[in-house]
Amino acid sequence: MRAQFVLSEIGVGLRRNLTMTFAVVVSVALSLALFGGSLLMSDQVSTMKGYWYDKVNVSIFLCNKSDAESDPHCAKGAVTAEQKDQILGDLKKMSVVERVSYESSDQAYKHYKEQFGDSPLASSLTPDQMQESYRIKLKDPQKYQVIATAFDGRDGVQSVQDQKGILDNLFGLLNGMNWAARAVMAMMLVVALMLIVNTVRVSAFSRRRETGIMRLVGASGFYIQAPFIMEAAVAGLIGGGVACGFLLVARYFIIDHGLALSQKLNLINFIGWDAVLTKLPLILATSLLMPALAAFFALRKYLKV
């Protein structure tokens, strides 16, 4: 097979169906950009989980005098020094506990003023209304229930709270958004495949005379099909290149510059360029193979060779 002939046929086919070729490029680009974006979103959620779950604490809030008057969990009165020592001793004996820190009511009041000093409620609070607490760093954040079972309802304990529950809600929302993006990506992928099949059909129909002559002179089936398959592959590869460009530009302007989220949201550990670059070969390979396979199976039905 002469490579020059195949390349010339590819150029002719792409020019003849320029509008449909453009539609294929756009649909492939959008679907693969969403595909790459969903992969990067999964990496981002995993990175954030590893970063934040490593920092979450379980807090054991102790009863104070105000709680003894209003909270049924503290009906036996404010926590005593003996009870605090007992709780601390039991915590240190537990194998799931990595570190325990104590926060006094004065420290809790100071932290509250730093975070919510502008709140109208802040001016009415006094240090003795704030709760003492133990902040527990677990070796495995999944073992929160061990702490809750051991200390929830104990004398002097007002409540046991796990920060991981708040993060789970956030990550659940992010995962939901990720699956929504994948659903849109799947629909765009179906549209792209339909456009590829229709483009191949139109191209094969417009050149039915040439393919008929080639069959008569003994050309092989693959020799006849190759230009059509490669047309679809080239159009898909262009779309894949555009999708890679979208991801690179999005990473540059959303995280590093433009919106500069990495500077504005210092508490979020964003994925690096390595995560983006490792996805590009997969996107390019998909953009090449997907249209080629779609064209191959379309030709088996619409081009009798």
UniProtKB/TrEMBL annotation:
- Give the Pfam families listed for this entry: FtsX, FtsX_ECD
- Transmembrane stretches in the record are 21-41, 179-200, 236-255, 276-299
Which InterPro entries does the record match to this protein?
ABC3_permease_C, FtsX, FtsX_actino, FtsX_ECD
Query: Start and end of every ABC3 transporter permease C-terminal domain?
Result: 184-301
- Per UniProt, residues of the FtsX extracellular domain are 56-160
**Localization of this protein:** Cell membrane
The annotated topology with respect to the bilayer is: Multi-pass membrane protein
Superkingdom per UniProt: Bacteria
Which of UniProt's keywords are assigned here? Cell cycle, Cell division, Cell membrane, Membrane, Transmembrane, Transmembrane helix
- The question of whether Cytoplasm is a record keyword is answered with no
Specify whether Cell inner membrane is a keyword of the entry: no
Q: Which family does it belong to?
A: Belongs to the ABC-4 integral membrane protein family. FtsX subfamily.
Instruction: Explain the purpose of this protein.
Output: Part of the ABC transporter FtsEX involved in cellular division.
- Quaternary structure? Forms a membrane-associated complex with FtsE.
Protein name (database record): Cell division protein FtsX
Native organism is Streptomyces mirabilis
